[in-house]
Amino acid sequence: MPSVTVAIITRNRKKLLEECLRSVLSGTRIPEETRVYDNASDDGTIDMLKEKFPGVKVIRNEENFGLSYCHNQALSSFATDSLLLLDDDNEIAPDMLEKLQDKLFSDPKLGIVLPLFMNAYDVPKTVCFCGGETSLWTGRNILNDKNFSKERETYPTHRVPNATLIKKEAAQATGLMDDRLFSTMADEDYCRRMEKQGYKALFLLSAVTDHKQEVKRSDARRLGLTNPLQTYIFARNRSVIIKRYGSFFQLCFFLLFFQPLFHLYYLFNMRRYGAPKSFRKAYWAGIGDSLRYVFTGNLPELSEIRRRYES
Q1: Count of Cβ atoms closer than 10 Å to residue 248 Cβ
Q2: For the chain, what is the radius of gyration of the CA atoms?
Q3: Burial class (CB within 10 angstroms; exposed 0-12, middle 13-18, buried 19+) of 18
Q4: pLDDT for 195-254, tens place per residue?
Q5: What structural domains and CATH numbers belong to the chain?
Q6: CB neighbours (10 Å) of residue 162?
Q7: Which listed site, 46, 137, 217, 260, has its alpha carbon 20 to 30 Å from 12?
């Protein structure tokens, strides 16, 4: 049986992390190694891990370097046949990991397999996410249909967030994630690079995880903009993806028609919802860096991005 390491990324979500770990360690497929990558939590997470999960390896970062940085820590150091990158707001089904493992190693062209994400707080539970991609013409999210037939087994995807099982040989062929993308769309960039190495990614609809993410319904959070750093990334990364993977004509079409519409929409609504000035300033900086990348290919390094937007 192929071996697996589970790497859970966390920051200041002690209760969610405990529930996530219990689901991982009580399933039908127990991982050979379980690791927690902690992004400078100060809520007692480390003490909880020492007390309740002494067998779990803890890698503590003294600063918050973001998801992609932690993913790279895990990708560069696992020794098993596969690696499950798991966010702490998941409570996985008992057979999820076993089903993902069986599917991943059933096809040599498979590099990544993911479970179906369910909204944990809905009653009854509803489908949260089952894959998709960014349109290289418009920059819009193209999501797979949540109302799929029971006969459907898989969905292809370029979005691979939150609970991603990666085959070691595919990870070695692809390399590390671009931590300059920080979070939003870093997974899509990685998946598209992996595809160029001959590996595909699929959602396995019979494998399930409960995603414990509460919907925020106030102010700029309605737009998915939760802090200045996330706002900056949101304004910038769509252009990065299209520049890297779209054709010249797709890039021109996006820059001339759809990118201005996106920016007008978000800037208008940030003012409408009374978003702080720091959010609007960060969004404008994202616009500037996106255009700079399109014409020069240069992105600020992770250290520079963090210096700007994190205290």
Answers
A1: 8
A2: 19
A3: middle
A4: 999 999 999 999 999 999 865 544 555 566 788 998 999 999 999 999 999 999 999 999
A5: 4-211 (3.90.550.10), 219-309 (no CATH)
A6: 22
A7: 217
